[in-house]
Write a structure and sequence with these properties.
Blueprint (H helix, E strand, L loop, with lengths): L2 H40 L22 E9 L5 E10 L4 E9 L5 E10 L6 E8 L7 E8 L3 E8 L3 E8 L16
Antiparallel strand pairs: 1-2, 1-8, 2-3, 3-4, 4-5, 5-6, 6-7, 7-8
Length: 183
């Protein structure tokens, strides 16, 4: 075997290896894309329990309950519908479960714990959550809530924007007036 034969064998083996690596990378990209699409499209809709949450559960609690509104990015041409269920964890901490919809019908679900700071008039709150690289990295939130309006800015690894929501209105079929209906 001459030197060119060994060289040709090595080149051919490198081509085969490159092809295998390319196919493997393509397979991983397709799998990740399928997972992201499944999570986004398969789970679209309001946070679990959103329709059954009354507004507000406790008199004087400006934060707990169901909320609906919109989100918008300050750095990208993106916006969409936003719903949330906010639960009281302690006197100063609340867990917000968000479902942000995009114009393409994708759903982005996230959870953040907010810490209430100042309570004079509208409550001021802040929070920070690492949602992972595929969901935008670490998000820092700062906002105010007055019982009817929820306004919160977000600043993440890849985006900045605002959440604007109003307390969800109870549907007529779940309000006190419907309790005696049909009798």
């Amino acid at each position: 075997m001459g030197g060119s034969s060994i060289r040709e064998v090595l080149v051919e083996n490198m081509r085969r290896l490159a092809k295998r690596v390319s196919v493997s990378i393509l397979t991983v990209v397709i799998a990740v894309g399928a997972i992201v699409a499944y999570k986004g499209l398969g789970c679209a809709g309001a946070p679990q329990g959103w329709k059954s949450v009354s507004s507000p559960p406790q008199p004087g609690d400006l934060m707990e309950g169901a909320w609906e509104g919109a989100w918008s990015s300050d750095t990208k041409p993106m916006r969409g519908k936003l719903t949330a269920v906010i639960e009281k964890l302690s006197d100063t901490d609340y867990r917000a479960s968000f479902d942000a919809q995009t114009v393409l019908g994708m759903s982005h679900k996230s959870v953040c714990v907010f810490h209430i700071g100042e309570r004079a008039g509208a409550w001021k709150f802040q929070g920070k959550e690492d949602l992972g690289l595929l969901q935008g990295g670490t998000y820092e939130y700062k906002g105010t809530v007055d019982g009817n309006d929820f306004v919160c800015t977000y600043d993440s690894t890849f985006d900045k924007g605002v959440f604007r929501m109003q307390r969800r209105k109870a549907s007529p079929s779940t309000g006190p007036a419907s309790a005696g209906a049909g009798h």
